[in-house]
Amino acid sequence: MSRIFTQIFYVLLFVYAGNIAAQAQSITVSGTVKDKQSKEGLAGVSLTIKGHSGGTASTSNGSFTFTTTAKVPFTLVASYVGYGTVEQQITGNATGINLELETAVVLGGDVVVSASRTPERILESPVSIERMSAASIREIAAPSFYDALNNMKGVESSMQSLTFKSINTRGFNSNGNTRFNQYIDGMDNQAPGLNFSVGNIVGITELDVDNVELLPGASSALYGAGGINGTLLMTSKDPFKYPGASFQYKTGVNHVNDDNSSVQPFNQLDVRMAKSWNNKFGVKAAFSFLQAKDWIGNNFNNFDRVSRTVKSGTRESDPNYDGINTYGDELSQNMRNVAQSVLASGTATYIKNYGLATGGMVPSQAQITTFLSTNAQTRPFYVGLNTPGLIPNQNITRNGYQEADLVDYNTKSLKASGALYYNISNTVQATFQANWGTGTSVYTGSDRYSLRNFNIGQYKLEVKGEDFMLRGYTTQERSGDSYISSILGSYINEKSKISQAWFPEYVGNYVGARSLGQTDAQAQITARTAANSASAGGGAYFAPGSPQFLQAKDQIMNTTISASDPTKGIYGAKFDDKSNLYHYEGLYNFTNLFNKVVEFQVGASYRLYDLNSAGTIFNDLTNSIDIKEYGSFAQIGKKFFNDKVKFTFAGRYDKSQNFEGRFTPRVTGVFTVAKNNNIRVSYQTGYRNPTTQNQYIDLSVGGGTQRLIGGLPEIMFNKYHLDTNKPYTDVSYRAYLASAATTGAPNPALLQAYNFDARGVRPESVQSYELGYKGLLLPNLLIDAYGYYSIYKDFITAVDVYQNVGGSFVKFGVPVNAEGEVNSYGAALGLDYLIGKYNISGNVSYNEIGDLPVNYINDFNTPKIRYNLGFGNKEIIKNFGFNLAYRWQDQFYWNSSFASGQVPAYSSLDAQVSLRIPSVQSIIKLGGSNVLNKYYFTSYGNPSAGAIYYVAISFNP
Fold first, then answer.
1. What are 566-622's pLDDT values in tens digits?
2. How many other CB atoms sit within 10 Å of the CB of residue 810?
3. Which residues contact 14 (CB under 8 A, 6 or more apart)?
4. Which residues pair with 829 in a beta bridge?
5. Peptide bond between residue 73 and the one before it cis (omega within 30 degrees of 0)
6. Chain centre distance of CA 80
């Protein structure tokens, strides 16, 4: 791979060698920039020349100097967080320039790029877009800019742990949301193997964030497959515009009034350094380290994995208890089936031994019955099954372990990034960038995954100019010491006593207890106590924290899943994923070439997934898996009627090696009804390829009770023969089990076969219509409103099926495409209002799902109503500011492959006060998230979060 990047680098240098040779003699630009009111020098002001790359930032006393090859006249632009931007025309001497900036908040003045992949005023964006600038990031009350995304209009999230949050818009939220794309400096930060966007676990550091842009809804026409529910683009700071050293230290506490933990420390250190020379070379480096105690999963509600619903009962009251955040209790066995299995095994053994003793003779049924009714190992089961009502039609599970006993809650996140910049000419810049991070966190997918020492690296080489961009990058994912919590819990149980011994011991002791006159409830307790005790079948239940428990836990979580061999007592729950992604893309904008008569740009991309999990996630234990994808797009836009109307047409074609190609068009219109008032209308399409796991996963989850497999024919049919040995539907299997209560044995006539599509899983698509308005009704009042209607087709969901393999049923989870169409619709309204230096903001969003196809599992996972309110003043008195952010959302039902249940309505208030110390270019901030400390959870089965209180000191933020 390094050879490819080297070749690209030399080709680019050759192409632009002429530009280097033709550069004009540089001139020096220097001067001073001050606060207009106080006349104090301002440090860190960005100074650039309009239309040219490079620039500098002012020093501690407000002075600045840099060189440029631009010829006078040119426009010098000065911008600074919290101040209005100043542009000054330079026609003669470029030294001794004096600039004064005035504190200001200008509504609607932001320039965005992501909406059309070209710069435009946010008021004129053809689609809905949200933006967070460096200025707003500095004022947020939340612990990080990523946490503050929740305050944006229409944004919801699924919080799986302290540092792992999945962002979404417009419905169908999920853990590790794969329908929402995230990019950092143009690099897709999705983990290629584990299939989640790493978000703020491994990503951009807060001091290095220049801006964040979020596009709700479909965006495939410009950004390719994926992102049918939205796209987030995070851009880091350029060292030419933001040179110097920055520092931030944040310390605080969480787990206040937490029943699961004492108060715990929260610490984070961020450092950024950047330097440029002669407006030609630039370099920057950023570092961040966070350490805290994670939120604790404590949902111990009883979960029925067959019907996927919460049921009543605890471990003490329900022998078949399966706690949501307890692991090792997932495997469920019917007591009568266990007894029948013991008798069947005893019968087979007796017939074999009888034949050996008699020279091949076969015993009579009377002899077999006599053996079963008198043999010490089989007699309890024979008596139990032949005494009406003695063994109930009752399922039982083993004792599990709470999540806190198994998962590593010692959260750590280390991020490091660096970049080298070279300005080939005034308008052409080459960049080499490296982002690397490692961390320990918890992620929820089909299970709860403890991500220990997980790391990911992204490495990019890019050349971009005013009209073009060429980029190549790679993502290198390493799972580190990550493992599956439910498999760990189940295998600890297997290390103490294998299930083939535990379940018969339970049933046998139950029969004995009932024979002695105990009630059913008493006998269940007696049976569990006996099965959890040491016996000939194995050792006693390993109590959490005991030496036996710790030894087994350490061995299992450090052994890979593929190395497991139960026949030798070897059990593993660890991933071994080393998957990679390679991506290349280019773009050319012909607008200047066409003298801006029309706006026209084209682009193309190629992507390669290189999956390497050694059989611990994918079906790649004995074979290699590569997935190739490519695509291209074009967009043309034209203004009419004195620039009052603008239409844009875009289209993209994408092809994956495993699926047919797809074309996704987009049509937008922006109508200026008055100055700074625009109506927008759009038709957008999007599509998403099945994820790498949707295609190739082959993984045991739920403590071994279910196998997740990919939806490609080569896995479903060639490996597991779901076409010839047809599995049965989930509903009919439940009816089959329930029939035993009345007939004494399950009725196989109730089983209904499930027929998979011979094509396997396919890409899903969406068509979305939007009507919106954004404008300044008053100079101090900004309104943004929209309504949308979306139609999803071939929606990727999953089915649970049961295949009869040798008399035992195996549960499979398989991705499939929902039949029919799924519709969703909604609207949102946002207001920003300035009263002097006070900023009042608010937004409300409404999302709803339409009628559902038959047998479709509703995973809309989105509240109907949610709203945010904000109130702040960055300088209520000299150097003192504050900010408040309140959010509320309605209750809703959450449905996922891990757990399903009701998410209650909740509210949360973030707050901060700040003191600016200009003399040392520093800010001290005292704040907190969820300061009222009302514990809440955003998705069912995930932990509840309380308050984080912190104090932060920042230098030159």
1. 999 999 999 999 999 999 999 999 999 999 999 999 999 999 999 999 999 999 999
2. 15
3. none
4. 785, 844
5. yes
6. 33
